[in-house]
Amino acid sequence: MKTFPRPRVVVSKCLEFAPCRYNGAMISDEFVRRMKGRVDFLPVCPEMEIGLGCPRDPIRVVKTGGRLHLVQPSTERDITEAMAEFADRFLAAVGEVDGFLLKSRSPSCGIRDVEMFAGMAEEAAVEFGAGFFARAAIERFPDAPMEDEGQLAVAAVRERFLEGISERAAARRR
Predict the structure, then answer these.
(1) Order of strands across the sheet with 99-102?
(2) DSSP 8-class letter at 152
(3) How does pLDDT run across 87-112, given as a tens digit for each residue?
(4) Distance between CA 117 and CA 61 in Å, rounded?
(5) How many Å apart are CA 96 and CA 101, to the nearest integer?
(6) Helix and strand numbers, DSSP H then E, in the chain
């Protein structure tokens, strides 16, 4: 009987693993549930890892002076450095991974749809981009398949993601 290598995928912990979202919730995700027996998931919640509690006041990405900052408006706490240090440490220690499945729109984990504001009190986003942890993952693992749970609802995106993580796992085992 032929055995297939199990892909190693970093996943946002709030997707089916733990109630660690800012509001204390866990997101039910059928795709993650179905993949648990076929993938070695490496769950992570960067916000919990840097000491933000659960539940916690929301954080946001603020662009000032051409630089991005990760801040908690209610406390005016700037957690940019703590998040950057955690992301570097985690991604350096994680070893070889075959892909990333991260939480959409998250200021830490969002891949492409994170709202970026001109200030802490601003109501409307000035642009969209990647969250702090996701940006670090993209830089360190530029060839790894990376998607968010929202995009995986699209069959073609889901198929491409699954093929990508399977191919990387097979290449890693050769």
Answers:
(1) 40-44, 8-12, 99-102, 146-148
(2) G
(3) 999 999 999 999 999 999 999 999 99
(4) 6
(5) 15
(6) 5, 9
Q: What DSSP letter does each residue of 14-27 carry, written as one string?
A: TBTT---STTS--B
Q: Which residue in 9, 78, 10 sits closest to 50, CA to CA?
A: 78
Q: Would you state the structure tokens that stand for residue 106, as one six-digit string?
A: 């998250």
Per the CB < 8 A criterion, the answer to whether 52 and 23 are in contact is no
| pTM of the entire predicted model | 0.94
Structure token pair of residue 52: 């933000």
Q: Across the strands, what pairs with 148?
A: 102
Backbone angles phi and psi of 134, in degrees to 5: -60, -40
The domain locations on the chain are 8-168
The closest of 61, 58, 69 to 24, measured between CA atoms, is 58
Please write the tens of the pLDDT for every residue from 44-54: 999 999 999 99
